[in-house]
């Protein structure tokens, strides 16, 4: 043998003898055997082994001082603190960056002054070729199993959480199938690292991995643990019938009918529900050639579980089907429920419906007719009883409710139209109803120009009462002043002031063709009020003594006008409403200035 080979053999023999000498030999230490639980880690991760011999069941820890020594049995070496990435901490041995060489048995030897104890822990290291980057959280080949229950909220506990009290700093992350888990309403990590899973469904069955990154004694390390999660389907089926609900259905004899039995079945999994229809005590066949038959039940998945439906068909409803209970029965091993409906003929409903419809139509037509007949009476009654519903005319810049325009005869005594305009009309409107009228010659200032007086009064009036006729074929052609009033009133109403409305009063005796075009147009659009038919009286002194001379020249009969109550209602309907409500806001003033014209004074 060469000197070199001899020297190398001597060195190997010395090393083996010296390392083997570190491991306790003989029976001086009580052997507690091998720990049942193995520690599984991947290459590059950290691993922690705990010596379970420091326990009151082994020796009195409080009265016997002790020391702990760790040995790697495969190499025979003692593992001491700060030997590479090895840290000892109390009863724990930390291996912070393990490799395949660290796999094997580690012996824990506990020595006191009187005795010695030992036990063995096993470390399994996953082959480096199977290792994936830890940040992806891929699954271990060896993993723990935890369970979740469907339709409930569950929890997954990370086994690495037990190490957090012994490290300096740490962070914990969760992965699902190697993908980072997004925390939301479905998944939530609690303060103790527990993963809360809300409303568990079968799809939540998966591999979940937790990664613990930590720092210990100035050294960085990490550990991973995969949890194989299984979902337990907890069957809670108790069917509930949604349709029918015990109703009575109106049907026509000879018609077809379709009825649905709808059943809600909460839960997940095989429901075992059977839905059948029966009439009284006889079950209905699924043979579609029968007049009454049911179709096969069908199921549809919903968020709460399942919806089961079964249809009942009547190809022809007959008298024998009336007042019969048709029952939907639902059976499964958890519960039996049923619900019914019945049929009732509606052949006699046509007459009542027709009568009701006819009555409603008659009432509607009557209401419309009554409205048109009594429209004026209704409107006047509302104005009298509820004045606060109508705006007040105060503050609108007007002084008169109406400007009275009537035909006058020059050089002749007053006719019936003048008596009506100067006596009858004011007596009723001013004396009885409280309106304020303007009548030229009665209300104008002495010496005021005619045009100025007419324009000023029109601008201060809300209506124009335009009287024509009178029983003698006279209109406005015989009096220049009355003709001027008519023209100015129509011009202001039609062209200048939209709020100044004209009310036509026809005393009779004038054909429509003899009227001015503007008056004809107004009469066609809105019509005219007629006080009454003309009456006669042969006693001149009882009719009107002031017209004796004019009557003797013309005739011995004097016409006079007696308005009916209907006329006064129609006239009041067209007059301004004397409301008491809040006045309307006016955007312009109704006060006008008029230039003085060189005309003859009134």
**Integer count of domains:** 4
Shape: elongated
CATH topology of the largest domain, anyone?
Rossmann fold
What is the CATH domain class of the largest domain?
Alpha Beta
Averaging pLDDT over every residue, what do you get? 80
Biggest sheet details: 6 strands, mixed
Coarse structural class: alpha+beta
Tally of alpha and pi helices: 10
CA(first)-CA(last) distance: 166 Å
CATH homologous superfamily name of the largest domain?
Answer: Toll/interleukin-1 receptor homology (TIR) domain
Instruction: Bin the helical content.
Output: 10-25%
Task: Please count the beta strands (DSSP E, at least 2 residues each).
Answer: 33
**Whole-number radius of gyration?**
57 Å
Strand content: 25-35%
- The CATH architecture category of the largest domain equals 3-Layer(aba) Sandwich
